[in-house]
């Protein structure tokens, strides 16, 4: 099977072509041996027609459509699987090549740090005169937190991902020149076996995963992150030593991890209090599992005898105290040699970790369990200090320091669990709880009255009765018991296991003020004077209107005395989450991007007025219409003052797998984000013409009108249902959460993820570009408008980044394929108006973007990426033709061929929703 490979900017792109050729040949061999009769020949026939069609042969396109229309369901399934499997292999080879390039660059740059790494940022700032003291201040403030979500955009089974990972690791052998003939023969046999297994593995899930299964599935990144974090710390320490000779630095945990999985209740009825409790337990067990691996390695290494180094009073004191406090610890200490104090101390740590793993998040922990990650880190730092005094610096500053860095980063929780809920459901629960606490009529209160109510003290006796109440409504029962779980977890496992509480669809201050009140109600019900943890209460602004109103909402929140006291108790820092997906679905990509920018500018001003530090939580997805794209470019494009050393970012769906499935790629992704966060926080931003922002205001308004005219067209829903595979996507068992918030087939209730997914599959890329051309043209027609846009492209980073994302969207969108899908809706003549509007806006956006950039074609400045997309197109086209034909035939959305086609197109485009 020939290779839809791509040119690559790296000098060893010939190795990529070699790898894909090898894999393609092996897949072809497997198709002949294990595929249905004639499948290999059919694949080759269709591939040839697809390439001729892309070259401009219209007859080939007609023949291809006829040939596909005549195939049986079994033949179509085989054809889809062959293309999808080859895309998986190609993607894997490209990932392998990326790793190869990263290693090559590091080798060439050594001892200088790689470009766009935290070490590079340190050296850049040092070269600009930043003192050691100021650098320490920057490092003390620095924190990027990556938050994993279970949003259903990962269309690939974990079993398939595991097989591809094994293949990627096996392909490393191809780079070795010293293999013996027998070794090369064995390696080839292994490759063939792996490709054969991949071909015969079921790629479709039979049933939707449970929330707990999603939690377990997300933990596949744990081993890679465990390795990546100390690498980042080692890099940074080395670069600090290079940039500031003779200075010593304290390196705090500058990267952290969070998760919504098991805590995101918004529209997911399966996230119950019991599920949240179990999720906390699983996260704790994963952290302990990894700590035990480090403990075993060091226990085996540190067989140092006190007869040789003289012993350490601190270790002996701690060992005696452990033996007196915990019989279990005394028993395991007896297993060690009497003079090997290091091994004995590590054996106690191991026992305490094993005790920690047994702890239920909501129960008193067993004897000896660590109270927190900080307590574990303190024990490890004692060992490190003793090693240093003994002169064992390589051990102290090597494996021991790595473990300490992990203890500070991951603690005993691995990732902090966030809670999210729809503000409307929170208000419903508050009304019923308020009535039980002696204040009926909550729903009739004004906004001001609600704010005042949430500041009142909670009656302890009335609150205690809530624990045994049986006649709550379902929403109230789940909400109340959730906060009881959070209160117990904070007390028994430590507050560091919990992240933030988020109110989606936030529209009023009371939507957020409810969180500290619910925490007080839960604590009071348990007979406690105050909550064990002050969880940051976070508003989530998602729609265009909510973003526009967000500065007023935050102003009112911070002006409320009770809430201001809560913020002060949380370190005088407020977090605000902004949603890229729903704002794009609501107003189109240009209006979304610019309103997000404007909201951040204004929210920073409000927080500054109240002397409150502000952290933004960016709810990004992987698709272009959901804030996707290069992470560093996104950070560098944020408004001045909006980062301030700290930010949170969601990592969703297929992005989670693509960025964290390999330690090299995970390390690179994290170091690039940290590089960008540190630089934009430490450098004084360049000034830009304030008139540019007014111009963008006008462009965003015009763009939103154009997008909403399309979306609000009376024929839109008919077109959406017939010209996109939305019914197939909703039938895919790829996530526990329903695709619609209320189950009704209304656009307002459909989540942004399947909405974007559907428009990506049929190559419309609606949320990635539609309306942008109309918006930019509206200002380009003003006197000097186009000249201004050209200057902005060169000098205004947010605008340049936006235009570059449009170029990528335009190259992935395809007018011919869009017409193919539009033909499925032509029975209703009204829908022809929509494809006409789409084609006109596509051409308008393309010509406007080319005028602004000065390019002759989209992505002209990034030839390797342009080439990668263009070479893949014929193969993706084939799957589009098959999918459209199956939809035309009225195939059941849950049928295997349609489901396979969605997976295949997603693999070919390397994006879902």
Biggest sheet statistics: 8 strands, parallel, barrel
Annotation field: number of helices = 42
What coarse outline follows from CA principal-axis ratios?
globular
| Strand count | 8
Describe the secondary-structure layout.
Layout: H1 13-34, H2 39-54, H3 58-69, H4 73-109, H5 118-127, H6 132-141, E1 143-149, H7 158-171, H8 181-200, H9 211-218, H10 222-243, E2 255-259, H11 273-301, H12 306-309, H13 313-325, H14 327-333, H15 341-357, H16 373-389, H17 393-396, H18 399-410, E3 416-422, H19 423-436, H20 447-454, H21 460-465, H22 474-492, E4 498-504, H23 510-525, E5 537-541, H24 544-559, H25 561-569, E6 573-579, H26 580-587, H27 589-609, E7 613-619, H28 631-636, E8 646-652, H29 654-660, H30 663-682, H31 690-711, H32 716-723, H33 726-731, H34 752-761, H35 766-769, H36 772-780, H37 785-795, H38 797-812, H39 815-822, H40 832-853, H41 863-888, H42 896-909
Parallel strand pairs: 1-2, 1-8, 2-3, 3-4, 4-5, 5-6, 6-7, 7-8
Helix pairs in contact: 1-4, 1-8, 2-3, 2-41, 3-41, 4-7, 4-42, 5-10, 5-30, 7-8, 9-11, 10-18, 10-30, 11-15, 11-18, 11-22, 13-14, 13-15, 14-15, 16-18, 19-22, 19-23, 20-23, 22-23, 24-27, 26-27, 26-34, 27-31, 31-36, 36-37, 36-40, 37-38, 38-40, 39-40, 41-42
